[in-house]
């Protein structure tokens, strides 16, 4: 696990001003991924999976969108380029690969040449090995509701966008960690990624439990009207900045409702579309948010950084260069800086999941 991360206290206790919101409170666990070197026995984002050697690695068999834009990079190449950018300084000389990075680059080039020189079809036309996105152990993330004796959730995706929603296809696996004794040492990886933002950086986690409330679009018109009543905010002596007087609901959504970033449980973010319920294709139960895969851990600007963990506020205030945004530790970008929400059936987590870009 990475060092502790602590969400700052909210500007006010929203249920004291709007007790009508109390029934909507939900627990969520902010994962707080930060770059590191997780092992197969750790909860992680983009890290190695505790995968049985005898179990086939998941491949995506769907049709893949592929435009020959000149982008031809394997996950290894993408991560090596990120290492170089991290070491580059404005006005300084171009960084060079370390001997270990150079060896990795050469092995990757030989691996690619072996596949393309033997008459293999274009990568986008092949079954594509999926990439690890998250591995979550129940011991670290107690909000998980695994089926049976399972205590581990593994999430993978295909690093290509798929029609009609133009997002990576996802796969979920529940398993019992103690039953995995012979571990797959070298999982297959895709020939290339459709977009660098679909290649997560290995990150350790610092889980933190918080309480969330729904986006105002999800609470119904009567409560929306209350949240829009500036007089009520003033009567409660909340000290909310007068810049929100015209749209006080915006203050609620930005600072009091649901947290940004990678998280388990809680309430989903909305905005790209109005909220709409998701129902299980097997039993028709209303599905619940399982995992939010986020492009950013906190929003930009002074207001948007109210969710920035206390331990990260100095870094968030500093300028950054070469894509080294401290609010984007995983380097993931879904839907071009949106969020991917994964939903599961509350009756049976093994029922087919669904996902949505917001």
Description of the molecule:
The protein has about 350 residues and is of the alpha+beta class. Helices cover about 20% and strands about 15% of the residues. The chain has a 6-stranded antiparallel β-sheet with strand order 10-1-11-12-13-14, with no helix packed on it. Strands 2-9-3-6-7-8 form a 6-stranded antiparallel β-sheet, with no helix packed on it. Strands 4-5 form a two-stranded antiparallel ribbon. The longest helix has 18 residues, at about 100-115. It comes from Streptomyces galbus. This is DUF1963 domain-containing protein.
Large-scale geometry: globular
CATH fold descriptor: Hypothetical protein YwqG fold
Number of strands: 14
> What's the structural domain tally?
1
In whole angstroms, the N-to-C terminal distance is 28 Å
How is the main sheet built? 6 strands, antiparallel
Superfamily (CATH H level) name: YwqG-like
| Percentage of residues in strands | 15-25%
Oligomer: single chain
How many DSSP helices?
Answer: 8
What is the CATH architecture assignment?
A: Roll
What order do the SSEs take from the amino end to the carboxyl end, as H and E?
HEEEEHHEEEEEEHHHEEHHEE
Q: What is the helix content?
A: 10-25%
Strand order of the largest sheet: 10-1-11-12-13-14
Summarize the entry for a quick read.
This protein is an alpha+beta fold.
Secondary structure layout:
Layout: H1 14-17, E1 26-30, E2 34-35, E3 44-45, E4 59-60, H2 75-87, H3 99-116, E5 128-129, E6 131-137, E7 152-157, E8 170-175, E9 203-204, E10 208-212, H4 221-227, H5 230-235, H6 248-256, E11 263-265, E12 288-294, H7 301-304, H8 313-317, E13 339-344, E14 354-357
Antiparallel strand pairs: 1-10, 1-11, 2-9, 3-6, 3-9, 4-5, 6-7, 7-8, 11-12, 12-13, 13-14
Region (Disordered): 81-103, 305-332
InterPro entries: YwqG-like_sf (IPR035948)
Protein name: DUF1963 domain-containing protein
């Amino acid at each position: 696990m990475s060092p502790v991360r602590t969400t700052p206290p909210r500007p006010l206790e929203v249920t004291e001003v709007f007790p009508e919101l109390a029934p909507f409170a939900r627990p969520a666990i902010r994962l707080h991924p930060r770059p590191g070197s997780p092992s197969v026995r750790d909860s992680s984002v983009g890290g190695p999976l505790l995968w049985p050697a005898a179990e086939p690695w998941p491949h995506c068999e769907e049709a893949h969108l592929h435009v020959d834009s000149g982008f031809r990079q394997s996950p290894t190449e993408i991560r090596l380029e990120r290492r170089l950018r991290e070491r580059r300084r404005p006005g300084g000389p171009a960084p060079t690969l370390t001997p270990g990075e150079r060896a990795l680059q050469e092995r990757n080039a030989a691996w690619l040449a072996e596949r393309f020189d033997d008459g293999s079809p274009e990568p986008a036309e092949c079954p594509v090995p999926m990439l690890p996105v998250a591995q979550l152990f129940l011991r670290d993330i107690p909000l998980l509701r695994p089926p049976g004796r399972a205590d581990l959730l593994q999430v993978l995706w295909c690093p290509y966008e798929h029609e009609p929603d133009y997002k990576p296809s996802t796969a979920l696996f529940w398993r019992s960690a103690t039953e995995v004794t012979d571990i797959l040492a070298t999982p297959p990886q895709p020939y290339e990624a459709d977009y660098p933002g679909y290649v997560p950086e290995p990150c350790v986690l610092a889980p933190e439990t918080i309480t969330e409330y729904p986006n105002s679009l999800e609470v119904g018109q009567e409560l929306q009207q209350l949240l829009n009543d500036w007089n009520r905010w003033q009567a409660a002596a909340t000290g909310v900045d007068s810049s929100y007087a015209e749209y006080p609901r915006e203050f609620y959504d930005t600072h009091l409702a649901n947290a940004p970033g990678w998280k388990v449980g809680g309430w989903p973010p909305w905005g790209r579309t109005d909220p709409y319920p998701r129902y299980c294709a097997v039993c028709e139960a209303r599905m619940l948010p399982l995992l939010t895969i986020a492009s950013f851990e906190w929003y930009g600007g002074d207001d948007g950084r109210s969710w920035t963990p206390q331990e990260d506020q100095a870094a968030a205030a500093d300028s950054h260069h070469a894509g080294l945004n401290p609010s984007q530790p995983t380097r993931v970008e879904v839907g071009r800086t949106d969020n991917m929400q994964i939903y599961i059936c509350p009756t049976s987590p093994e029922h087919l999941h669904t996902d949505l870009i917001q």
